[in-house]
Protein 1
Amino acid sequence: QGPCDIYAAGGTPCVAAHSTTRALYGNYNGSLYQVRRSSDNATRDIGVLSAGGVANAAAQDSFCAGTTCLITIIYDQSGRNNRLTQAPPGGFSGPAAGGYDNLAVATAAPITVGGQKAYGVYVAPGTGYRNNNTNGVATGDQPEGMYAIFDGTHYNGGCCFDYGNAETNSRDNGNGTMEAIYFGNIKVWGYGAGNGPWIMADLENGLFSGVNQHYNAGDPSISHRFLTAIIKGEPNHWAIRGGNAQSGSLSTFYNGVRPNVAGYNPMKKEGAIILGIGGDNSVGARGTFYEGVMTSGYPSDATENAVQANIVAAGYSTSGGSNPGGSLTPGSSISLRATTPGYTDRYIRHQNDNAITSVITSSSSSLDKSDATWIVRSGLASGSCVSFESRNYPGDFLRHRNYQLYRQSNDGSSLFASDATFCPQTGKNGQGTSFASYNFPTRFIRHYNNTVYIASNGGSNSFDNATAWNDDVSWVVSQPWA
Ligand code: AHR
Ligand code: AHR
């Protein structure tokens, strides 16, 4: 069973079902999305590993080996052909040729679903998908529901990271001409409790966190790594719901009448579908999308609760791309994956004796895989910490010198031992592990411009920059690439 089987059983069937990670119907066995590679502009449809299952990420990896792939189409699993493609210019133009928006880089959001590797849709500002000619999507004041799974740690204050119903001419056609899920921390229109990000409804000329046009205390800041976000609307009634896509149930953050300003009752929905942009093709926002649907009819809370249970059971996880679950036990081989949004496909590897990060996939060369693999040793300077011996240069270790990391052979000195010893602690951004330098304990292994350092959180070196420090010093200990 998939989410759309649950919506259908509840009498509110999916009229659009988009995902690059998994089938949204128990019997769906078709294509999830299409990628295009830059080497020869060839395209390839990416399907599922089995009917109702997870995306065949390995098919993408092999098709895209040695080149860059973009996501060109996100297919509609509902059978209505409401697919999403590169968004055209509208009230605002995108950065690509002809004023179109950019397409997402296909490897930029790696995760696992049920232990299988999959890729989400990584929306950097300027990226957008749209369908202005849909079939079966709500128009006017017709009832509809929608959910999406986002990366709750990847957002900004630009307008507008949306998924849902928008104008069919890509322009701002006035209050009530949209009904979409918004996620981010822009405060120009509505906002909720705390500093954000918030799930809000983009109803055009306004992001609504509740009945009031601006502040509504009932809409909390919410930033689960995998976030379930829900908006639904019917005549003079709508709701915001949300929860953790990895565990637990949904909460209702608003459930009531249409906003207390003119133009939103009745609604004037037009039935286009957008992803990553505002209704007028505003392209300032960032975010990551994994799956989402739109329904015909106003889904019951019970139906949505069953969908949430299905999502939790699917098992979204960040642990280790295709290689989850490495161990810091001495003797085991591991790879160290970055967790900074946009860099989560990069691993610490040595190259020309320097420690840098590189994108490593299952189709990388065996040399790259070996360079990105480390054998955990009891810390050379302290048994309560660890050292990392090179997989393909036995006797060489990861060590810092002038705060930069290198692969070097152990000269047996106590300075080398200290420089090559790192003390693991919980990841500073809540993911994975951070590694404090043994002899500079306020400095942690950090990537900066794809080079690896021991960096303090703010300081005189460029690589001590406080921006993104928490993310840059947090690493997922993954199973070894080699
Ligand atoms: O409602 C917020 C935004 O305002 C819409 O997404 C966009 O169409 C307009 O700029
Ligand atoms: O990396 C900081 C220090 O710089 C190291 O301890 C030492 O090897 C070098 O002088």
Protein 2
Amino acid sequence: TFVTFAWMIATRAARDDPRDSRPLDVVAAAIIVDGRVLLAQRSRPAELAGRWELPGGRVESGETHAAALTREIREELGAEVEPAESVGSPVALPGGLTLYAYVARLRSGTPTALEHLDVRWFSADELRLFDAAEIVPADRDWIPDLCAVLDGT
Ligand code: DCP
């Protein structure tokens, strides 16, 4: 019981808002079309604004990663995707969150920056040349993994 109690305190302390009871998982989509992957330019918060990311967001209570990914891409980009295999390793985020990436197949719609500043398609060669400082810190480690997936398509 003490261990459980200590764990609950530690987990709660790790959240930005202690009343936020959502899971601590964040999912991000690698949408790949014609050998290029879509990156989206964040509009918020200030410290991440202007940086490029794999689009996605927080998993809600009771939601699978696949359902969260589909919902986030519909909300943020106005497109329908089907989540597939994972990309790279999960990344620890500030606030006790963990970020997971998945390949997502585009089913319909044209990904559009509804909540981002911009969206852009990158080939493996473009990704390798892209300035890592322009990518959100958590997503930088995935560049080699994304290039490997793109090279294999
Ligand atoms: N994040 C990241 N890289 C990604 C996607 C997200 O580093 N490819 C980070 C940024 C945030 C956290 O994950 O710190 C949550 O992402 P979002 O703000 O995009 O997700 P939500 O909009 O769902 O979060 P909230 O509801 O808390 O605003």
Protein 3
Amino acid sequence: MTVSTPAPAPATVDLGDPHTFADHDLDGFWRTLRDTAPVYWNPPVGGRRGFWVVSRYDDIMATYRDNVNFTSERGNVLVTLLGGGDAGAGRMLAVTDGHRHHALRKILQRVLSPRVLNEVAQTVRVNTRQLIREAVESGGCDFAERIASRIPMTTISNLLGVPEQDRDFLLSLTKTALSADDEDVDEVDSEMARNEILMYFMDLVEERRESPGDDVISMLIGSAIDGVPLSDEDVVLNCYSLIIGGDETSRLTMIDCVHTLADRPGQWRRLKRGEVDVETAVDEVLRWASPTMHFGRSVVHESEMHGVRLRPGEIVTLWHASGNRDERVFARPGEFDLGRTPNKHLAFGYGPHFCVGSYLAKVEISELLLALRDFTTGFEQTDEALRIRSNFLTGFSTLPVRFRPDHRGLQEADR
Ligand code: HEM
């Protein structure tokens, strides 16, 4: 049967509204959608367009894989899809399709591959261990501010060759660009922050053109597609993409990791005693955090999913927040299990746009787990953690934590 009218579902939940995610526990909502309306219509609200909501793992994978019927070039997150498109379309990796996407991705993969990132991984290790050691020795800290804010931003800034003195400024912008940790920050502030990041990189690209260095910006300036060098705009947009993609997602995952472990001493003990493989644990941390709640596509050719007709131009959103908890794929999906295998989670997406920074993100999370394991015997959350507000990202902007030092581990590392 073909159903062209929207499927019924809890009408009180508006997935376009950032407050929805701060104010509700949506586990039950997602389960209802997966069971009864796997392709659900989030209706228009206050002049904003409606959009399709895909909640089952297999359907999300199938849509990610299908770049014939679906495109990223009209935006890949609700804010741009609903706002009428993405200014970086056809030039910024995440919102480019086809041949140009393939060529651009090859260029970025060169600098983000495990082989090339070997040295970067060493630096992540040294930084992470130093930050965790300092926090453990001082008894505690706001983990979000003192540790998680430092590691991904330092790493991606090192790669891009962002001068040390500019990093705090950039961090303040990336914290506002896609989410808000303050009631006073609205979409206008976020848009200004995104523009400021672009302007910042315009200046830096101009500088690097004059005096190239050994960094990703200089490499991008020297790159060409089909014999045509990348323009300054192309380079700027892709730097933006790397800093936005590389900072907040990893930062939120690290914060969620410590938040979750502090709350589950049994899982922490498994890690501490070496009962779980760290690589396996990293995947569960990612599945659990699912920091990017959704990505999205626009329909190019009419297609059908679960009897629902998807028409050209319509917006289809793919919810990791639901797919990563789909009981059709994951046993006991509501349990955080550091030893979970298999664990083919969707945190990095799937198909042609699969996260190009996934290796780097995994290095960062794995070094965090190792430093925690080696330097502390345990930790507690000492005060409430503040939730960010966003319809795209989920997580906390603060996480006050007290650490108990592992004196033997700290001494061994000194040798
Ligand atoms: C793409 C998630 C870390 C850069 C993606 C996509 C997801 C994702 C789901 C697919 C988007 C789509 O299909 O429209 C994550 C998560 C991360 C993370 C959860 C950390 C926990 C990073 C890092 C970098 C990065 C560290 C950069 C160093 C990118 C870029 C793309 C992308 C450039 C676009 C790839 C393409 O379109 O071909 N990411 N990411 N990400 N990510 Fe990540």
Protein 4
Amino acid sequence: MVKPFVPELVYVEPRALEYDLGKELVNKFENMGIEIRETTSHNHIRNLPGDNHFQRYRVAKSTLVVGLRKTLKFDTSKPSAEYAIPLATGCMGHCHYCYLQTTMGSKPYIRTYVNVEEVFDQAEQYMRERAPEMTRFEASCTSDIVGIDHLTHTLKRAIEYFGESDLGQLRFVTKFAHVDHLLDAKHNGKTRFRFSINADYVIKYFEPGTSKLDDRLEAARKVAEAGYPLGFIVAPIYLHEGWREGYKEMFEKLEALLPQYARNDLTFEFIQHRFTKPAKKTIEKNYPMTKLELDESKRKPKWGKYGIWKYVYTNEEQEDMKNTLGKYLVDYFPEAKFEYFT
Ligand code: SF4
């Protein structure tokens, strides 16, 4: 089992110490004997240890910055939610294909924000604007929030915050199995707890540093037992030799491990693998030995919302994966709700 994340190095913005959570985290890390440095801004960590890019990248991935969220304008988060709620940025996982390679290539360290109440106030404003419509907030657009939450409990607070809300719902996705502290959160059914799952091949070659599939499924079982609405995101769907069998085995495993009570309110989302040119450059620099196939000429270009081309599978390949996985879903989980393929 992958151990819960412990940072090797911590940076703190002085203003973070004006917040209870900031003080609490600094005390915690001091007691753990972790080196703590001061930084004027969580966006400018320049003096990370390491002799070369490779070393500094690895250090950054185990560095936690305790700071304040300054931009309180939330990004949109289609198709899974109306808004992305910013609770943290960055991740300790080493998934080669990670979407963060595009969005935060030069700042791979992890940032946690202590001004959580201000973030909630902003969420409240968005909910009021859309009332009486329900507003969904996605908490994992810029990080794997579950992966650091055993340290900060920010996500737990968000779950309880939305648990009391009439107009808001929370959702997030994780590849980590460290969910125990979230099991007693008063979620009131307002949070959809999703796990990212994949074929063995993809997990084995492209997802180092994350929990194994069996551990994620065991965590999913516990989460369902705690009454959370549950979901799975199959992402990224990646064509590799034997992919049909690989994804079939994944569904078989899921079907064998998931108890009936976990299937009452179950959703699935399918997301195909895609990459951008800047992401490809970053991936080749950070994971030079990767087997990840990143050949633009084999893909279909698609204009992305960040004003940049992304490379997705061809129309025929997309149809094939949608039909193949769609059939498995109907065969193994006829009661589940299929949300989208993108
Ligand atoms: Fe990226 Fe998610 Fe992997 Fe973290 S767990 S590196 S956020 S894909």
